[in-house]
Amino acid sequence: MLNSNQVVIVDCPRDAIQGMKKLISAEKKAIHINNLLKSNLFDWIDFGSFVSPQAVPQMADTKEVLDKVEPGSTKLLAIVVNERGAMDASTFDKITYLGYPFSISEIFQKRNTQSTIEESFEKLKKIVAISVMHNKTPVVYISMAFGNPYGELWNKELVFKWISKIAELGVYEFSLADTTGEANQIQIEELFTSCIHQFPGIRIGAHFHSEKINCLDKIRTAFDAGCRKFDGAILGFGGCPFANNDMVGNIPTEDLLRFFKRGTNQQIVELQTSFQNMIA
């Protein structure tokens, strides 16, 4: 029988809203994030990012939002893309996890963090060192893990190579990111099965961008292949604004909660309303 307590569910309001053109106030963001936290349905909340306000204007007020939220037993994750962001995020006791998007696509890495893959790896070394120094846990997202829409080399051995190199830095929390929403069930089953077998000492989660029609199939396939950490966003909003794919959208958090039998329909509806109120 499925035990939902064995699964880590991460809601990602940061990913849901980061590409929205209309700026949302820190007050509205904090109200919604606190509603997520008070629900006690989530293990982690990916709440914001310490990145350039020019690159992601929606996240310019992350520090102000953080001052207004109270995580309790739920852990907070912030995205960082360089040493400065990691240092800023590390000053906050409320933050447990520092997330870094590491792309195995040279083109996407340059779009996302203005660096080559090798330069990104050097940045990651510094971020991991800062995380350890400040008792934070680094989380690495392997972007473009399921394919490459730019015509570059992609294979699962490339995924293995970079997970192995990054794990040697002391990272044990990963997520495989389907950045452009192109993963199919066969790829998901093969990659998760292979990675979990290849790297038994680390946790490898799923960060899927997907059309709504395929979401439950992707969740079920990844779970059956051994995945025990899943990211989602309320109502499936969001995606990466740097992928050049019109932001496919995230796995709806509601699908995760229902699939893993966590929470009630009333709680889910209340969180949907909270999200809609935030973006209104």
Mean pLDDT: 93
* Helix-residue proportion: 40-55%
User: How many helices in DSSP terms?
Assistant: 11
Please give the oligomerization state of what you see.
Answer: single chain
| Low confidence ranges | none
Characterize the largest beta sheet: strand count, sense, and whether it forms a barrel. 8 strands, parallel
**Helix-and-strand structural type:** alpha/beta
First and last CA, distance: 40 Å
Shape: globular
Radius of gyration: 17 Å
Order of helices and strands: EHHEHEHEHHEHEHEHEHH
Neighbour order of strands in the largest sheet:
7-6-5-4-3-2-1-8
Q: How many strand segments? A: 8
Report strand %.
15-25%
Please, could you describe this protein's structure?
The radius of gyration is 17 Å and the shape is globular. The chain has 280 residues and is of the alpha/beta class. α2 packs antiparallel against α11. α7 links the parallel β5 and β6. The chain starts with 7 loop residues before the first strand and ends with a helix. The longest helix is centred in the middle third of the chain and has 17 residues. It has an eight-stranded parallel β-sheet with strand order 7-6-5-4-3-2-1-8. Helix content is 42%, strand content 18%.
Secondary structure layout:
Layout: E1 8-11, H1 13-17, H2 26-39, E2 44-50, H3 62-68, E3 75-80, H4 83-90, E4 95-103, H5 106-113, H6 117-133, E5 137-143, H7 156-167, E6 173-178, H8 185-198, E7 203-208, H9 215-224, E8 229-232, H10 253-259, H11 265-279
Parallel strand pairs: 1-2, 1-8, 2-3, 3-4, 4-5, 5-6, 6-7
Helix pairs in contact: 2-3, 2-11, 4-6, 8-9
